[in-house]
Amino acid sequence: MSTSSLFVRDTPSAPAPLVRRVLAQGVYEASTMLRNGEQLVLMIILPVLGLVALAVTPVLDGFGTSRVNVAVPGILALCALSTAFTGQGIATGFDRRYGVLRYLATTPLGRAGLIAGKVIAVLAALVIQVAIIAVVALFMGWRPNPAGLLIGVPLLVLGAVTFTALGLLIAGTVRPEATLAITNLGWILLAAVGGIILPTAKYSATMGTIAQWLPSGALGEAMRAALVHGRVDVFAVFILLGWGILCSAAAIKWFKWN
Amino acid sequence: MKRVISNISLTARFGEVTALLGANGAGKTTTIECAQGLQRRTGGTVSLLGRDPETADATLRARAGVMLQDGGLPPAAKPVALLRHVARMFANPLDVDTLVDRLGIGDFAPTTIRRLSGGQKQRVSLAASLLGNPDVLFLDEPSAGLDPQSRNMVFELIRELRDTGKAIILTTHLLDDAQRLADHVYIVNRGETVADGTVPELLSAATSAQTGRTLTFEADPGLDTSPLARPGVTVEQTRPGSYRLSGALEPGDVRRLGTLLADRGIMPTSLHLASQSLEDVFLAISAETSPEPVPVPSVRAGVTETELP
């Protein structure tokens, strides 16, 4: 009887290689994100609308060679905020409530693999966002500093990792409804006054200084320095790095799996 | 931190279904979560396939399948797509289509998990725990929410898994589950294993303890049943019109009840004499339990006969 069983096999139970597990999780989460309508609005529609708004209004006049050139670095930083902080934060918060994190932690993927998969999912989604924004911007006359592009890519990755850590910190410590509220409100506040799409010089002296010390302001300023002027904003990079290390350490320490 | 488990000792052998039986809140889930490495324990020892699950690597996780009580399934996913995804975590996963057929999951494949019934979700969770063809299987309340047909299907599958030599550890608060499935039952109460053995062993132990039988009957409410009480036998009205005599009943108790009813011209609407059920064993043993002086929790899952002391 048992010899014909589905469960009698020559091959022993064994995990898939680490890289395959993490990539599989990353692809699965990215495709889940991209199939979610609300997420698409947050990830693609709002950044494109923001880009158009900044290009047709005189808000950014005087900060660079053209409105689009100044707008694009901030909009790319906004994409990282949308996907990594708000999108991944909300998704993780609800996965935590439904026990999905606990279940996946019992599979060969494990906890570390799950987090790595989430970072990959964020980066994969970010590639798509950057591609769309870049195409739209090029049609609108975007001419980035060529050297700046090389600096911009690692900056955006650093920003995405920092915002993922911040999103996971919130998702892993409060209820999912609170995560939903905090990450959405955080997105609006950081986008409006966090120095992400508007240069910190646009704000009053006090607000500008505060924004420079925020991860949003740091990423926005560093991206603008790179893509508009082709230089590395060392201060902003250090601020961003500091937030990244702080948020990762806090998430590792306080993240609750259930 | 609240101490959930104080004195649990159990061993789960290959080729056996080991059941943790107890009321809600007894510590069953905590016990198997410690055995899986999902919860950190503050003391005691846990050995899963000879290793400590708290430092489990992917190889150990591949050999231990887990079905959580709350399922752990993402509500927005579709069952078969989710199973295909989880299968990618294993080097030699079971064929997803065969497993889906076997558990009747194909009938609701296009439905998102959010819209599935409790029993359908249970079957998807069970399938997910089996994908890697694990050697040890942890099933937390596997029969919860199942209709009788699904329950038979799941029980048959669990027996097949046992017959192929896997170690299966399941929790249940249903005595019927334990009686139908388990080779070895541990009765868990307030964080302690208060008794263990095969179902017949547990039943005969309780019968020899002379806690005996129950006699239930229904008649008019408010009947004076005090003449039926005697040392060792309790009488109670469990709800208006329902009465229960329990304890070491003797033939004289049956005669006294008959006389009482006949004298008052009462014809009971039901009359039922039952011998000890596992539930009574459980209740009797739980009531007798006194705190052990030296609690040393120990769980061993996936043990072959030859390894036993």
Shape of chain A: elongated
Q: Outline the low-pLDDT stretches of chain B.
A: 290-295, 305-309
Helix percentage of chain A:
over 70%
Biggest sheet layout of chain B: 6 strands, mixed
Structural class of chain B: alpha/beta
CATH fourth-tier homologous superfamily of the largest domain in chain B? P-loop containing nucleotide triphosphate hydrolases
Write down the CATH topology of the largest domain in chain B: Rossmann fold
Class computed from helices, strands and strand pairing of chain A: mainly alpha
Helix tally of chain A equals 10
Number of domains of chain B: 2
In terms of DSSP E residues, the strand content of chain A is under 5%
Whole-number mean pLDDT of chain A: 92
First-to-last CA distance of chain A? 41 Å
Oligomer: heterodimer
The residue-averaged pLDDT of chain B reads 84
- Give the overall silhouette of chain B: elongated
Q: Could you tell me the number of beta strands of chain A?
A: 0
**Pair of chains with the largest interface and how many residues each contributes:** A-B, 38 and 45 residues
Proportion of beta-strand residues of chain B = 15-25%
CATH arch. level architecture of the largest domain in chain B: 3-Layer(aba) Sandwich
CATH class of the largest domain in chain B: Alpha Beta
